[in-house]
Amino acid sequence: MNPLRTLSFAALMVLAANASATSFVVTTDAIVGAVAATTDATSDVSSSFKDDKVVLAARDDAASFVASQGAIRGVHLEAALDHIRTTVPSLQANDMQLAQAIISL
């Protein structure tokens, strides 16, 4: 085999390995960032509304909501979700995440 061809092949293999490692790091960082954002959102709700009467009244409804995978939506839960979204409009959490945060209070 030609030495130039061998050297070219080795260089391509090194570049391909670096590209794969970089791609893995970027993908991992994106996944970890998304999980951290969700965790931050639920912990913000948990700490901010620990003494809020509207949110605390929704704990049973939130448990029913989570247990039924979203099929049962009680009046207290609806009021709490509206209250939370009005109080913290920048919150990026879905109803299930908020219900789980309410349960954890």
UniProtKB/TrEMBL annotation:
Residues 1-21 form the signal peptide. Pfam families: DUF2388 (PF09498). It comes from Pseudomonas segetis. The keyword Signal applies. The keyword Signal applies. Keywords: Signal. This is Holliday junction resolvasome, helicase subunit.
